[in-house]
Design a protein that fits this description.
Pectate Lyase C-like, 2 strands, 5% helix
Length: 229
């Protein structure tokens, strides 16, 4: 089944069975594909940014040079997928399975890799500086996230002055994390716990997405003009 080059922007195909489909160069921008089976699909050069791919099955799929900017792949299966030269800037890959995936020359700047399994992934020449990880992230053998410029999200981390623009942090715990002068423009913060964060101002937080649905201290809620919880 081929949809080569066609526009399917905004489509909702949640739970669809699309194994092996050919969508090369298709425009699927801002679409919903959560829980869909796209294993072994041809998604090379596809425009799939700003889309919901939560729990999608992409095992063995080819996404070479795909534009995936800002899309959510939380808890998805991308094992053995080919993401060579894919644009994954500011994507949500929390708890995704990327074992044996090819991420050669891929761009993962500001991508959330918290809980992601990259154990046997090929990150050759991938741009990973500025991505985020935590203690549960599994990296390939001999990969040093600190030397590669990644930011670890742990209690007390210093993220002051860091560019978090458009990054996904839904439900994240920012316990004692310093966000002084951090850029939160467009940052996804729905359900994030900011009740004990350091250096945060109302001006900063109001530039983020879903900031009203994050958790704050009672005092900071007053500063934001939010009703008491």
């Amino acid at each position: 089944m081929s949809r080569d080059g066609v526009s399917l922007a905004g489509i909702n195909v949640s739970d669809a069975y699309l194994k092996g489909i050919n969508l090369e160069r298709a425009n699927i921008f801002s679409s919903t594909l959560s829980k869909a089976n796209l294993s072994e699909a041809n998604l090379n050069f596809v425009e799939l940014g700003n889309s919901d791919l939560t729990k999608v099955y992409l095992a063995g799929a080819s996404l070479q040079s795909a534009n995936l900017v800002g899309s959510g792949f939380e808890s998805s299966d991308l094992s053995n997928a080919n993401l060579t030269k894919a644009n994954l800037i500011a994507c949500d890959l929390r708890r995704a399975d990327l074992t044996q995936a090819k991420l050669i020359d891929a761009n993962l700047e500001k991508t959330n890799l918290m809980g992601t399994n990259l154990e046997t992934a090929d990150l050759s020449r991938a741009q990973v500086a500025g991505a985020f990880y935590d203690k549960s992230t599994i990296f390939p053998k001999n990969f040093d996230p600190v030397n590669q410029g990644l930011h670890q999200i742990v209690p007390g981390a210093n993220l002051s002055g860091i560019d978090l623009k458009s990054a996904h942090f839904e439900g994240a715990d920012f316990l004692d994390i310093d966000l002084t002068n951090a850029n939160l423009a467009g940052t996804h913060l729905k359900g994030a716990d900011l009740s004990r964060v350091k250096g945060l101002t109302p001006e900063q937080i109001k530039k983020a997405r879903k900031w009203e649905e994050a958790k704050y201290s009672s005092e900071f809620r007053k500063k934001l003009g939010l009703t008491p919880e």
